[in-house]
Write a structure and sequence with these properties.
It is a single chain. The protein is α+β, with helices and mostly antiparallel strands. It has a single domain (about 15-405), classed as Cytochrome P450 (Cytochrome p450). The protein has helices at about 25, 30-40, 55-65, 100-110, 115-135, 145, 150-160, 170-180, 185-190, 195-205, 215-225, 230-245, 245-260, 265-270, 275-285, 320, 355-370; strands at about 15, 45, 50-55, 70, 140, 290-295, 300-305, 305-310, 315, 375-380, 385, 390-395, 400-405. The chain is globular. The protein starts with 14 loop residues before the first strand and ends with a strand. The structure holds 3-methoxybenzoic acid. 3-methoxybenzoic acid binds near residues 92, 93 and 290. 3-methoxybenzoic acid binds near residues 93, 239 and 242.
Length: about 400
């Protein structure tokens, strides 16, 4: 980017030079979020020539209105109507009804409450074993030895992947989540070695690579039933492999980070374990793993006095909306009793996270297993951020678990 992009003449709204994909922004977004929320309900980001919304009311409303704010032109900065996407578009995230309705129906059935009851036992055994292991170690990197380990242990097995090559999963997710932003240095570094990683992912999506009965194979059952075509089936398996790992890894890491910083909240949860499930919503609100997504306007739309013309990208700041004081009083406070109804960490509307029951199950089980064993969680050094154009991500989180006396 060299020259600022001028605001379209029809639109009258504040203009900001803030670059939401700069290192400074991604490392510590919250003071920038404040500025963006306060300059107005809609603003123009002239670094990229896109509109933005950072207040809860507007972000929530845009997510609900898929007819006006479509996904079919991409959920990233690139407009698929103008440029070819970095990867073949998702048949779930990057489509609109009626295709979306069909693919979404298949995915929500595979990832339903009944399906969670099927995997719960296996996931529980593994959460308990991992908790034994990390508490025995005492001092660990909560990213490398816990947050990355658990989803990578349980989810690929549930999908039905072969054991070989699973080290490609996190690098692939990292690339795709970077690709929703501009092609900056962060993106370029993550795709430097893309070829073999992408090839491995695509190979795993075919029917013969997937264990019968797993989530992946169930997608192909929907092909047999005539609900989706073969390309849709393969791409939906790819969606599971893209959206199901980095998100939950960061969800778990952010949970450990939140509780390490708030020992009173950890104690409160131990005194009342019924708070475990709702505590994850507060983690998601307070430190949202998916920080942003784009939509594209399908018509001229008026928002609080600003006309956004048809065919423009709108950057929705989910993480900023979740810390809007207009919606959540004292938004910086991490309070697991808050019940943050309406947070948009899983989105809202027809594209609301279809895998959220898996994420909720993983976090519930890992927190439950740790609560039984851990008295206090202390950070032993500053966490190291891992910058990503979309994800709020930690690269390393050194902590010490003090075990409960038995
Ligand atoms: C997909 C996809 C990829 C990344 C994220 C996501 C959070 C979906 O390929 O469908 O949802």
């Amino acid at each position: 980017m060299t020259q600022p992009v001028p605001l379209p003449v029809q639109a009258a709204c504040p203009v900001s030079p803030i670059d939401p994909f700069s290192d400074e922004f991604l490392a510590y977004p919250y003071r920038f979020h404040d500025q963006l929320r306060e300059i107005g309900p809609v603003f123009w980001l002239d670094t990229y020539g896109v509109f933005g919304m950072a207040r809860h009311a507007e972000v929530h409303a845009a997510l609900s209105d898929w007819q006006t704010y479509c996904s079919g032109r991409g959920a990233g900065i690139e407009d698929f109507a103008k440029v070819k996407s970095w990867r073949p578009p998702s048949k779930l995230l990057e489509v609109d009804p009626p295709v979306h309705t069909r693919t979404r129906t298949v995915m929500s059935r595979i990832l339903s409450p009944a399906a969670m009851r099927q995997v719960r036992e296996t996931f529980t055994v593994r959460a308990e074993a991992l908790a034994d292991d990390v508490v025995a170690k005492g001092r660990i990197d909560a990213v490398k030895e816990l947050a990355e380990v658990f989803p990578l242990h349980v989810f690929p097995d549930a999908v039905g992947l072969r054991p070989e090559g699973r080290e490609n999963l996190l690098p692939f997710g990292n690339m795709v989540f970077n690709s929703f932003g501009p092609q900056n240095a962060i993106f370029k570094e993550s795709v430097a070695n893309a070829k073999p990683v992408v090839q491995w992912i695509y190979d795993q999506c075919s029917r013969d690579m997937l264990r019968p009965g797993g989530f992946g194979s169930q997608v192909w059952d929907a092909f047999d039933a005539g609900e989706i075509d073969a390309e849709e089936a393969a791409t939906l398996v790819r969606s599971m492999l893209t959206a199901g790992l980095d998100t939950t890894v960061n969800g778990i890491a952010n949970a450990i980070y939140a509780f390490a910083q708030h020992p009173d909240q950890w104690r409160a949860m131990r005194d009342d374990p019924s708070l475990i499930r709702q505590s994850f919503d507060e983690v998601l609100r307070w430190e949202s793993p998916v920080q942003t997504f784009f939509r594209t306007t399908t018509r001229d739309v008026e928002v609080e006095g600003t006309t956004i013309p048809e065919g423009h990208k709108v950057l929705l700041f989910l993480g900023a909306a979740n810390r809007d004081h207009r919606k959540f009083p004292e938004p910086e406070r991490f309070d697991i009793r808050r019940r943050p109804i309406g947070h948009v960490a899983f989105g809202n509307g027809i594209h609301t996270c279809v895998g959220q029951l898996v994420a909720r199950l993983e976090v519930e089980l890992i927190l439950t297993a740790l609560l039984k064993r851990v008295d206090t969680i202390t950070m032993t050094a500053e966490p190291v951020r891992k910058l990503n154009n979309t994800l709020r991500s930690i690269g390393s989180l050194p902590i010490e678990f003090k075990a409960l006396a038995h």
